[in-house]
Each structure stands twice: as C-alpha cells, then as structure tokens.
C-alpha cells in the first residue's frame, strides 16, 4: 500500500528551498516509490527522509538519510505498505524541510491472464473473454479488502483500431480467499468480435483508504469504481 555528520551553517538552505516530489504518487503494494528533489545547490549536504504511515497517529520520524549529490540532488527509495506522508529535511537544520508529499498504495496484481488480450487476430463472431488475476494485500488489511466485490468493465470499438470512448460495468464478482493474504479473481464475458476492433477492460474494488490505509483517497466509489460507465481515460488510471 518505511542514519551523523559535521557541516558548516553555510551549507544550510533558506526555508522553502528544499524541493521534494514522489514518483509515482500511487504504487502497487511491494513496489518502490522514489522521493527526489534538491536541498540547497551544494554537494555533500546531509539530508534525512521523514515518514509518517497511516493512520498518521504520530509525528513524522526519520527513516533514511544521505548526502546530496551534484547541485544538491537527492533520491530516496522506499516501499510503502500503506498510505504514507514523506518530507525531506536538513540533518543539521531539521526545521528546514520540504513540503509533505503523499503516496498511496494499491493491492499488488499478479498472475494476470486474459485469453483474448494482446492477440493479433481472432475469428469473427462470438467469443468468451476470460480474465483472471490475483491480488496481494498487506496482512493487516486483508479482513477489509478480501470481502469487497470486484467490478469488471468492458468497452469495445468495432471497425476501428482506436480505443473505445467508454467502458461499461458488465460483471461484479467475488474474490476467492487464498493463503498469505492473497485472493483470486476470475470473470468471463461474452463478446462479439468483428474483423477490425479494439477493446479495453479493467477491474477495480472501491477504496477504503480512510479505514485501512490501502487505496486512493476519498470515499468508496468516489473515483469511478462501481459506476455504470467510465471513460477510457479513467480506465487507464487507478479507480477506487
């Protein structure tokens, strides 16, 4: 869904001069995120990364430190398991810190299978689309996440290689609990394929980030998951 040194005051930065950004802002569970930026314009300045993880019940605490590289650049790499807040500060002047950057965590998708995806051609007519995958969760979120229904969206544009403008909710399926805080999801959907076509599909669960720190910020369904239709652009991003 996270180490001392001596330097002169001349290496300090005026307040507001420490830049920080996270990329990406949303990651899959177990995947890394980088917090990068510049702290002053000098090499060798000791900086520290402070982190505060959901439920944000305590003040940010140091999780890593390093010295800046050329032109004051730094880059921290973390693997958050829940929604987290990060900031970068000067080791010798902790009050001089960057703005807070927020990172959100989604379940990790593995073993994804789709019998009609990526193939160059299929016979025209009716087919059964089979789509399956597994979801891996942080252990302490499993009780909240595993019972959620999975919403499956499908959109197709016939006679064109352009993506469909909209995807429609076509199936709602349950997760099957597995060992090691994992679930299996399987769905089928009947489709009719012409000679030339392009389809898009996506599956989602509604976010509960406010409850367990997993998913996108906002109320359940506030990012499109569960709606009758979504746009193709929505389907390319995280839903929740």
How would you characterize the overall build of this protein?
This protein has 2 domains: about 100 residues, Immunoglobulin-like (Sandwich); about 130 residues, Sandwich (Immunoglobulin-like), CATH 2.60.40. It is mostly beta strands and about 240 residues long. Helix content is about 5%, strand content about 50%. The strands form 4 sheets. Strands 2, 4, 5, 7, 8 and 9 form a 6-stranded mixed beta sheet that branches. The chain is elongated, with a radius of gyration of 22 Å. A hairpin with a 3-residue loop joins strand 14 and strand 15. The N terminus is likely disordered. The protein is built from 3 helices and 17 strands.
Would you count the extended β strands for me?
A: 17
Helicity range of the residues? under 10%
From the structure provided, what is the oligomeric state, counting identical versus distinct chains?
single chain
Tell me the number of structural domains: 2
> What Rg do the Cα atoms give?
22 Å
Structural class by secondary-structure content: mainly beta
Question: What order do the helices and strands come in, and which of them pair?
Answer:
Elements: E1 18-23, E2 26-28, E3 33-39, E4 46-53, E5 61-67, E6 73-78, E7 84-90, E8 93-97, E9 101-106, E10 108-114, E11 125-136, H1 142-145, E12 150-158, E13 166-173, E14 176-178, E15 182-193, E16 197-204, H2 209-212, E17 229-231, H3 232-235
Parallel strand pairs: 2-9
Antiparallel strand pairs: 1-3, 3-6, 4-5, 4-7, 7-8, 7-9, 10-11, 11-15, 12-13, 12-16, 13-17, 14-15
């Amino acid at each position: 869904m996270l180490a001392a040194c001596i330097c002169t005051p001349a290496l300090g930065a005026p307040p507001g001069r420490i830049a920080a950004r996270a990329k990406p802002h949303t990651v899959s569970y177990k995947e890394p995120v980088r917090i990068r930026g510049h702290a002053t314009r000098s090499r060798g300045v000791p900086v520290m990364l402070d982190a505060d993880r959901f439920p944000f019940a305590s003040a940010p605490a140091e999780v890593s430190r390093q010295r800046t590289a050329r032109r004051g650049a730094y880059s921290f790499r973390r693997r958050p398991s829940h929604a987290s807040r990060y900031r970068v500060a000067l080791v010798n002047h902790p009050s001089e810190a960057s703005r807070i950057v927020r990172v959100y965590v989604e379940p990790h998708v593995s073993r994804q299978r789709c019998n009609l995806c990526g193939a160059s051609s299929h016979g025209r007519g009716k087919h059964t689309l089979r789509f399956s995958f597994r979801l891996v969760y942080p252990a302490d979120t499993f009780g909240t996440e595993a019972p959620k229904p999975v919403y499956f969206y499908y959109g197709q544009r016939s006679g064109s290689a352009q993506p469909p403008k909209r995807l429609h909710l076509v199936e709602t399926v349950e997760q099957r609990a597995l060992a090691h805080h994992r679930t299996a999801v399987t769905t089928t959907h009947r489709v009719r394929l012409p000679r030339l076509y392009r389809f898009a599909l996506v599956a989602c669960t509604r976010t509960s980030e406010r409850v367990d720190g997993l998913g996108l910020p906002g109320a359940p369904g506030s990012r499109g998951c569960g709606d009758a239709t979504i746009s193709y652009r929505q389907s390319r991003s995280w839903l929740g």
